[in-house]
Amino acid sequence: MNPLPQRRIIIRRSSRQIELYDGNQLLACYPCAVGKSSTPTPLGNYAVATKVMNPGGAFGTRWLGLSLPDYGIHGTNKPASIGTQASLGCIRMHNHHVEALYDQVGAGTPVIITE
């Protein structure tokens, strides 16, 4: 039995925000960086496919790989980029924020990326 069946992540590209919901209740909201205009974060409905602790380098302290190959939610070694359009399409978060999100979601958690 999945203990977190109502959890979902909504990523809002235009406001550069990640929202974590449990049912209709907003549990957390975090700033993020999204893809540059030349490499935009793709809109759509996905899911958390993989979870990796300490992937290192540009991915910071956590990686939440999406069901869309080569894309994920991750920490960063460039915290000044948070709140901007800076990535190759992935969603960047402050390391302490992605660590908190990582602990609250599991594989299969829906991820909705909207404008």
UniProtKB/TrEMBL annotation:
InterPro entries: LD-transpeptidase (IPR050979), LD_TPept_cat_dom (IPR005490), Transpep_catalytic_dom (IPR038063)
Residue span(s) of domain L,D-TPase catalytic: 7-114
Example of a GO biological process term: cell wall organization
GO cellular component, one term: extracellular region
Record-linked CDD domains: YkuD_like
Keywords (A to Z) from UniProt: Cell shape, Cell wall biogenesis/degradation, Glycosyltransferase, Hydrolase, Peptidoglycan synthesis, Transferase
Location of the active site: H74 (proton donor/acceptor), C90 (nucleophile)
SUPFAM superfamilies cross-referenced by the UniProt entry: L,D-transpeptidase catalytic domain-like (SSF141523)
Pathway this chain belongs to: Cell wall biogenesis; peptidoglycan biosynthesis
Pfam families with a match to the protein in the record: YkuD
Molecular function, one GO term: glycosyltransferase activity
Family per similarity comment: Belongs to the YkuD family.
Protein name stated in the entry: L,D-TPase catalytic domain-containing protein
The organism of origin for this protein: Desulfitobacterium hafniense (strain Y51)
